[in-house]
Design goal:
The protein is an alpha+beta fold and about 200 residues long. It has 2 domains: about 80 residues, Glutaredoxin (3-Layer(aba) Sandwich); about 120 residues, Glutathione S-transferase Yfyf (Class Pi), Chain A, domain 2. The chain contains 7 helices and 4 strands. The protein is globular. It binds glutathione. The site of glutathione has 13 residues, from helix 1.
């Protein structure tokens, strides 16, 4: 088994944080995204979208999409449960995973693609798309802040995979992309400090 990884990418970091929380060790290989190694035909055989991370199993089959990779490990190693237990909790974790993806990761990704000098060579940037998605990013942060006003973690009162995904997303937005949460979002800040203090955040 091998996990194709890229150290500064938010999507592979989701998986690394998750694995650290589970206490699992998986061999990794760095794929040079900047050299477009992930866009070569042999890599596109493993994942036709070209995205990292990809988990290659010993039988040669490949699983891509960061959350799907985490789910695979959850089935094999259910303890500690990070996708919830029981119908209701599992659905709530899934709900927050979707909310973080659609309301925060997507707009941050759009600001990255349409508003950052590092991506300017890759596509024809549309400045209005970056501006609109800065607003959507702020709304996504507020969505999390409102939830964290009532709960310790993203999907409720225990740490779940939604926290791993949200931490990687917030750090990407606040760091490389340059769209940090507003300082007035104190509940999000309290959560961020708490999850950053966990050893898994170093992954
Ligand atoms: N939805 C995918 C996104 C994968 C993705 O876009 N990964 C980025 C790194 S964070 C990547 O490979 N970017 C380079 C490229 O697409 O060429 C996931 O959750 O794994």
């Amino acid at each position: 088994m091998i996990l194709y990884d890229y150290p500064s990418g938010p999507n592979p970091r989701r998986v690394r944080i998750y694995l650290a929380e589970k206490g699992l060790h998986v061999p990794t290989e760095t794929v040079d995204i900047l050299a477009r190694r992930n866009r070569q035909p042999d890599f596109l055989e493993k994942n036709p979208t070209g995205g990292i991370p990809v988990l290659e199993l010993d039988d040669g089959s490949c699983i891509s999409e960061s959350v799907a990779i985490c789910r695979y490990f959850e089935e094999l190693h259910p303890d500690p449960p990070l996708f919830g237990t029981g119908a209701k909790e599992k659905a709530i974790v899934d709900m927050w995973l979707r909310r973080v993806e659609l309301n925060l990761m997507v707009p941050i990704g759009m600001v990255w693609v349409h508003g950052h000098p590092l991506t300017a060579k890759l596509i024809q940037q549309i400045p209005e798309a970056a501006a609109q998605n800065r607003v959507r990013t702020a709304m996504g942060y507020k969505l999390l802040n409102d939830q964290l006003a009532r709960h310790a973690f993203i999907a409720g009162d225990t740490y779940t995979v939604a926290d791993a995904v949200a931490l990687a997303t917030v750090d990407f937005g606040a760091g490389l992309v340059g769209v940090p949460p507003d300082a007035a979002l104190t509940h999000l800040d309290r959560w961020h400090q708490a999850v950053t203090a966990r050893p898994s955040a170093k992954a």
